[in-house]
C-alpha cells in the first residue's frame, strides 16, 4: 500500500500543530491562576485545544486518503523536533548537542519506519 503525498503533508502539518499546541499549553499554564476561570478564559489554553482538534482532523483526513499507519505515525514523531524549535524561538531554551543527536535519531527512525 502506497501512502499518498497529501497524507504525508497532512501529518507534517499535524506534527507542527501538535508542537504548537504543546507550546500554547505550557505558556497558558504559566499564565493561569488557581481558579477555573483562569483556565476557561485563557486564550493560550483555548488555542492549544484548537491545535489538537486540528491535529485530529488532519489525522482523519490523512487516513481517509489512504495513508498507512506505519508511514504516517513516524512522521508525527517530528512533533518533538518542532517543540524544541518553538521552545528555542519563543522561550530561548537552548538546543544542546545531545538534543540535536536525539533529533537526528528521530529522523533516522522516521525514515526507517516509513520504508
How are the secondary structure elements laid out?
Elements: H1 5-31, H2 36-40, H3 43-64, H4 69-76, H5 79-91, H6 97-113
Helix pairs in contact: 1-3, 1-4, 1-5, 4-6
How do you describe this structure in short?
This protein is an all-alpha fold and 115 residues long. The protein has six helices and no strands.
* Counted beta strands: 0
Element order: H for helix, E for strand: HHHHHH
- Low-pLDDT parts are none
Strand-pairing-aware structural class: mainly alpha
**Which whole number gives the mean pLDDT?**
90
Q: Helical element count?
A: 6
Major sheet: none
CA distance, first residue to last residue: 11 Å
> How large is the share of residues in beta strands?
under 5%
Compute the number of structural domains: 1
- C-alpha-based Rg, rounded: 16 Å
Using the alpha-carbon principal axes, give the shape: flat
What level of helicity do the residues show? Answer: over 70%
Task: Describe the fold and architecture.
The chain has about 120 residues and is an all-alpha fold. It has one domain. About 80% of the residues lie in helices and about 0% in strands. Helix 1 packs parallel to helix 4 (about 70-75). It is flat and about 50 Å long.
Features:
115 residues, mainly alpha, 6 helices, 80% helix, flat
